[in-house]
Every structure is written in structure tokens, then in C-alpha cells.
């Protein structure tokens, strides 16, 4: 609902970042690829930080009345 | 009818007239009293007497209208219309009944709790997990209640980007349970259903919170397809709605703390992840450096061993060569004789320090 412009949710981005961190701690880590992975992870972390700082909640009070059965 | 004339009616007319008068005087009335002779007929109709020290009236209602457990001796408030039956019996047609006073509220609470517990409505196995970071929340509360304001304030402080749909309902009084049930049904039939339903109300007396012990509301919460979070009253207030919810919050503020994560904690998590990544890279660099150093040490050690082995072989060969040197034999006093060893021939005798030419005088076999 809040994922405007098909932007992934914060949760999805956090999960992606978790995956990136796991690469650094996993068996497939190589120093040659580390810089490229690090730059990607850092960019994602910064994007999440920005989103966390900027996001506002959107509160809508429903117009529907609940005092009478339909 | 002429003025001053005594009315003359049939029995039916009289009963109808009485009912008309009663309806005019008491279209609806609430009466408080103690329940006696409570009984259910054909699992449909309920009959009981409502009494106090001085009087007693018969009451009638349907099982469907009974929202809380009632038994003899309980003090209740009935909402009813008075009527005279065609048989001339006065009774109250009850629309709703609710316990009155702390003792009855508690008794009713315990009876319903035991009943629903037996049905498994509060089983831990039924509880579902709430989404970690919901993007769409349904809130059922009174928008005028302090508890609602606290909830929204804390929600905004903790997190953002959440779409919150609020169903404004009464959270106290007789119509509150039905309004909340309708709101639950509404959210459960939305095309874009919220990921979690939050039902909240601030603190109040036991009577104020009684709506959250309504059997039908409790069942609606338990039956909700959307996971539920209920935060009613204060920490010490436990309602049946709390027990039926997937997750119970102690207060509306606590509900906000439960339903969304704290953005500060998430930012802190990002810091930790950065530290983990850097530490991983450092570890690998340190290990790789240590590996290179190990290889270097092994290489030098291997070189040394090879040199040592070669030196030993060389030394052994040299020793052998020395052992075979004829001069060493000459040094021990031996001589090398060359030439034709026949009488009259000249031969050469080589000793360690000199060479001798000699003539052979005689050769005799040994």
C-alpha cells in the first residue's frame, strides 16, 4: 500500500541488505569482489537510512459508519 | 366515550390499552436487579426473574440476545420494554442484559472465560505472528479517545510509511461490541486487507471495559483472518478480547510499540551491519596476510632443508673421494711401483715424498 512507484518495502530492502552482509561472512567471499559488493551494500544502507528518516505515516479515518447494521 | 363515563373494554382491548400506556410511559427502560430462576427453554428462549428486596418481575429474552453469561444470584442491568401478555401476566421483554457491579462483572468474566477457554479460543497454538514491518494497518478505536491519540503519536515517533485505516467506533457502552464487530468484518472483507488489525482503548473502570468481554466480539477477534493486536486499558486490565487476540498489548501506547519497529533501532542495525562487513573484510585481509607469511616461512624452511640435504650429499661424496685418494695410501708408507718387473728391467717407485728409479735384480714367486 505504501510502496509507491513499485519501490520495494523497507522490510524487503533490509532483507536484501542482510543478504549482502551474509555474503561478506560467507564462503563465496573474495577480496577481488568485496569492493563492488561493499559499494552496493553501502548504497543500499544509505537509501534505507534516507527512507527511514523521510517516511511519514498516512492516517485515514474511514467514512463508513459502524453504528448501524447494514 | 362520554366525559365522566366509566370505560368499558373487552379483555383484549384492555390488555392492548395497557400495553399502549406502558409503551408510551416506558418505550425502553433499564432496570437493575438480581437474577433468579434463570432457565433456557428449547435452547432458544430465556426466562428469569429480576428481583430486589421488595419486588420481582418476570423477564423474557432470546438466547441470541444474551451476550454475556448470566446465572442466578448475579446482579444485572436489563434493557427492556414492559409488557402485559395476552394471559395477563406482566413481564419485561429484554433486549440486552449486562452484569452490574464488580462481583457480577467478575463472575460473568470468569464464566465466559472458562467457556471460551474450553473451546480453545485462547490457545497459544492459534496465535499468529504479526508482520515485522507492516505497510498497512487497520485500527479500530474511538478517534476521540486518549488511547487512540497516544497510539498515533507513538506510531509516528517510531516509524513511517505505514498506511493506517481507522474505523471510528464506540469503545464503551452497549453498542460498542457490535460496532467493533462490524469494523472487524469490514476490514476482513476489504479488497486490500490490512496486514494487522489493532483494537485499542484507553483505561477505564471495569464497567467501561466490559464491551471487550462481549462474547460475540471475542469470537469475532478470534475468527479474524487478519492477525489481531488488542491493547485495552492499563497493564493490569485483562479482557477476553486481549486473550483472544493474536498478540496482547498492555496499553494502546504499547500496541504502537509492538506493531511497528523503532526507526532508531533499525538505523542502529544498519550501523551494526556496517561494522560486521568491515570486520569481515578485515578478517579476510588479516587471514590472507597471515597465509602469505606462512607460505613465506614454509618456502624458506623448504629451501634450507634442500640446501642442507645437498650439502650433506656433497660432504659424503667428498669424504668418499678423500678415502679413495692414492696419496693418502702413500702417506701411510706405501709406494706405487710402475714398469716391467723383470730382472734387469728398470722400474719406477713412487713414494709420498719422492720418486725412485730402480733396477730389478731378481723376481721370485712367493
Would you write up a description of this structure?
The complex is a heterodimer of chains A (70) and B (366). Chain A is mainly alpha-helical. Chain A is built from 2 helices and 1 strand. Chain A has helices at residues 10-25, 31-54, and one strand at 58-61. Chain A is elongated and about 65 Å long. The model of chain A has no long low-confidence stretch (mean pLDDT 83). Chain B has helices spanning 11-25, 101-119, 146-158, 176-188, 215-223, 240-244, 252-259, 263-324, 326-331; strands at residues 29-41, 45-51, 56-62, 75-84, 90-99, 136-141, 163-168, 196-201, 228-232, 247-249, 336-339, 346-350, 355-359. Chain B has a 5-stranded mixed beta barrel with strand order 1-2-3-5-4. A 5-stranded parallel beta sheet of chain B has the order 7-6-8-9-10, with helices on both faces. A 3-stranded antiparallel beta sheet of chain B has the order 11-12-13, with no helix packed on it. The interface between A and B is large, with 39 and 43 residues. Strand 1 (58-61) of chain A pairs parallel with strand 7 (163-168) of chain B.
Major sheet characteristics of chain B: 5 strands, mixed, barrel
Largest interface: A-B, 39 and 43 residues
Order of helices and strands of chain A: HHE
How far apart are the termini of chain A?
A: 27 Å
Rg of chain A over CA atoms, rounded to whole Å, is 20 Å
How many helical stretches of chain A?
A: 2
Report helical residue fraction of chain A.
Answer: 55-70%
Shape of chain A: elongated
How do the strands of the widest beta sheet of chain B line up side by side?
1-2-3-5-4
Mean pLDDT metric of chain A: 83
Quantity of strands of chain A, as a count: 1
- Cα distance, first to last residue of chain B? 190 Å
Q: How large is the share of residues in beta strands of chain A?
A: 5-15%
Mean pLDDT of chain B: 91
Largest sheet of chain A: none
Which secondary-structure class do the elements of chain A indicate?
A: mainly alpha
Number of strands of chain B: 13
| Strand percent estimate of chain B | 15-25%
Q: Any low-confidence stretches of chain B, pLDDT <50, length ≥5?
A: none
Share in helix of chain B: 40-55%
Order of helices and strands of chain B: HEEEEEHEHEHEHEHEHHHEEE
